[in-house]
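Suppose a colleague, Dr. K., hands you the sequence of a protein chain of 159 amino acids and asks what its three-dimensional shape might be. Before reaching for any lab equipment, you can write down a predicted structure in token form. Begin with the sequence itself:
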Amino acid sequence: MRFLIDADLPRDTAILLASFGHVAFDVRDVGMRHAQDPEIAAYALQNQLCILTGDWGFSDVRVYPPEQYFGIVVIGLPARATGPTILGAIRRFLERPDLVALLPHRLAIVEKNRVRLRPPHHNIRKSANDFPRIPSRRLIKYPRRSGQFRFKYGRDALR
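The predicted structure, expressed as tokens, is then:
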């Protein structure tokens, strides 16, 4: 697989990816050291690269829909995480070739002890009429002997 490594990850990430047989490009090596996220995403899309980053901005599926990219991997570790901790999380992820094979057109959040994969969007509902009908519930007012009322939700209140 081909990866584009964001500038917020350690330089040794490229060496780690190469040791697992992957091709890695670092944004610092392709002249994009200070590039903004949209520029990095456009470069990855143009060159068919999976984005490997520690930037949570790439996890916003409204801005970066995973189905349009060749994979987005966000390393979800605390900001104070050291280089060896980050590389360890990436190594544990790469040791699972079954997960790496699922990356195209998906978002993966790699944390210290787990990996979360966002499912691909196959069945996208386009209108409100596509949603199942939910039975209506209305607030019903029941009189009490004391003259006060008790309120409950009921399904047959529409009759």
